[in-house]
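Quick start: read one record
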Amino acid sequence: MIEVKSLFLLKANVDTPQVIEGPLGKRWFIPVTGGTFKGERLSGVLQAGGSDFQLIRQDGVAELDVRVTLKTDDGVTIQLKGHGLRYTTPQVLARIMAGEDVDPSEYYFREALFFEAPAGRYEWLNRIIAIAKGGRMKSEVFIDAYEVL
């Protein structure tokens, strides 16, 4: 049986997606402009400059490829890489992008998280996989992350 331990709740501020039509579907490049993360073992801010690179496939599933940097409250910079899937109906996605508060139970949003941390207090992150359930609003994304034990 898989066991998990709470890692953090992350809230990312995001800008309007840049959309490119391609042979595999639409590509959304979503700039991350800041945010916060808070947990028992690490907390801090998301630094501006990261991005969520999404492929919106023909079947409507969004393949998520996230790269952001976390800066802990004690000044350590950590890279977070996220790979996941988000799926909903076109109608629910339109409501989200219009700024409506849509309950996350109306769509599927899951990620696997990987980290690169320097030697020291947070190097344990280099040896774990985290899983997360997410939510999407027009200008914010939240990730409820858990370490897989």
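The CA atoms of residues 88 and 107 lie 5 Å apart.
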